[in-house]
Design brief:
A: 10 strands; B: about 280 residues; 10 helices
């Protein structure tokens, strides 16, 4: 069995607007795959489709060779760009909620992340700053012992220090061995960590490449390739 | 099953604050109303007897003795019940939409739980049903409290004491929410449950197909309504004749079809079509 997420020819329209016109790519376990594209290109839609949070019009998505089902949520987690807990909850309540429903919840890791991000269990989610909300959101996703982590714009709208702290997660043991799919505009913070890049434009994959190979063989950065493809 | 109960507990806790506010509001208005009505009756009685020269018996013959009937047919009593019903009706929609539209994206979390998505549906429906039952039970307690207040304020000579059972049988509205027999209870609350399940299906249509979904949902609700009233309508227009027991059986079959179809549709929508 291949340990990977396979996105096969997915199509999605919102009304008359075709957002995805046959997107296909794979994301291996143990690799960081970055989905890149301009705003509105359908990156979040792809993430939502993988998690069965938005139905596709056509196509197939397989996780370790299986279609997503209720058991899949114990091996894949999605960290959207806004927190997925009630604002009235304290972080402690969120921990209890996650512990109640997920067998993959790892309390030790949650505590470790809490210290790493310098958050308090007594913090109420509604009262957290934007940066701390992003950290809490990341914490809740990463404290699950899952094989795949999907992150949608984890650096969106947060200050440079919080961004640095979040970027440090990618070099830590919290990520290693997992398959990560990330969408971000702030590529510079994690460029050196990305294994694979999927460039999306106009509803299709315009280029898919191994970041390390491009770096070593052609001496180009991801941003250089982006400039070539998007002709910016 | 374990996840259903966890979700049910979670939903009940989320509603608790609002529910307690609702219960307190109902109690305060009804109790104030009971006091005002009883005092105004006694004021009228005292004026008539002490100043108007009327005997107590003449007053009672003319105005009838004060009883809880005076209270339960007043706006002071029915108003809060209407508020409660309106609040619960609102909550039938709010229980779903808050997860999409509030200051969070909690629907992401709910849909990503490693459990059947129908557990979300059942926990929300059970929350509404339990709340309705709790509110009815609370109303029975309140009726007894209000009866005691009337006893304190109105002397026995001016008062007619009625049991709560007599009050509910005598009131057109209360007899609906407090049925006297198990069959009536099952019919009343079965209808309520059917209504909730159909409305939830309409909401899921809307959450799946947005504007088109409103049309599909309304169409579905209309078909469900027509199916349910069809046997009664056919009888009314003389197309068929059924004995009461046959009518009941046909209505039960229709209810099973409607609720069953709603559950199958809701399961399909939640599993395949609903969108964040």
């Amino acid at each position: 069995m291949n340990h990977m997420i396979e996105v096969k020819d997915i199509h999605k329209s919102f009304g008359r607007k075709k957002v995805l016109k046959g997107v296909s790519f794979t994301a291996q376990k143990g690799e960081i795959t970055c989905l890149i594209g301009v705003n509105g290109v359908g990156k979040t839609t792809v993430m939502n489709a993988i998690m069965n949070l938005t139905p596709m019009n056509r196509g197939e998505i397989l996780i370790d060779g299986e279609k997503i089902n209720k058991r899949s949520y114990e091996k894949i987690t999605f960290i959207p760009d806004t927190i997925t807990m009630l604002p009235t909850m304290r972080i402690q309540d969120a921990f209890e909620f996650m512990n109640d429903y997920y067998n993959s919840w790892n309390q030790e890791r949650a505590e470790e992340l809490l210290n790493f991000f310098r958050l308090q269990k007594s913090d109420r989610i509604a009262e957290l700053s934007k940066g701390n909300k992003a950290k809490a959101n990341l914490l809740l996703g990463l404290a699950l012992d899952v094989d795949y982590v999907l992150m949608d714009e984890p650096f969106s709208g947060i200050d440079i220090f919080s961004r640095e702290q979040i970027a440090n997660v990618f070099t830590s043991h919290l990520i290693e061995d997992r398959g990560v799919i990330i969408t971000t505009h702030e590529i510079t913070d994690i460029e050196h960590l990305i294994d694979k890049v999927v460039l999306l434009d106009n509803g299709i994959v315009v280029k898919e490449f191994n970041a390390e190979e491009v770096r070593e063989e052609q001496g180009k950065s991801i941003v250089d390739v982006m400039r070539e493809v998007f002709r910016i | 099953m374990k996840n259903f109960f966890k979700l049910l507990n979670f939903e009940l806790n989320r509603f608790m604050k609002l529910f307690i506010i609702l219960l307190v509001t109902i109690a305060v208005i009804q109790i104030i109303g009971t006091i005002i009505l009883a005092r105004s009756y006694m004021m009228q009685a005292n004026q008539a007897v002490l100043q108007g020269g009327m005997s107590q018996q003449e007053f009672i013959d003319m105005y009838s003795p004060f009883s809880m009937i005076h209270v339960i047919y007043s706006l002071w009593f029915m108003g809060p019940i209407a508020i409660g019903v309106a609040a619960l009706m609102f909550y039938v929609f709010f229980i779903w939409y808050r997860d999409w539209f509030a200051r969070n994206t909690f629907i992401y979390r709910l849909l990503m739980l490693p459990t059947s998505r129908m557990n979300i549906f059942f926990s929300k429906a059970t929350t509404i049903m339990l709340t309705v039952l709790a509110m009815v039970a609370y109303q029975v307690i309140l009726l007894n409290i209000e009866k005691t207040i009337v006893k304190w304020l109105v002397p026995k000579v001016y008062r007619q004491d009625l049991r709560v059972v007599d009050l509910t049988v005598g009131s057109e509205y209360l007899s609906k929410v407090l049925p006297q027999g198990i069959v009536e209870f099952l019919i009343a609350y079965g209808l309520g449950l059917g209504f909730i399940v159909v409305i939830f299906t309409v909401i899921l249509f809307e959450r799946s197909y947005r504007i088109k979904g409103i049309i599909f949902g309304l169409l579905y609700a209309f078909i469900a309504f027509v199916l349910f009233v069809l046997p009664l309508s056919l009888q009314l227009f003389g197309c068929i004749y059924l004995y009461p027991m046959e009518t009941l059986i046909v209505q039960i079959v229709m209810w099973i079809i409607i609720v069953g179809a709603s559950l199958i549709l809701s399961r399909y929508l939640l599993k395949n079509k609903v969108t964040v």
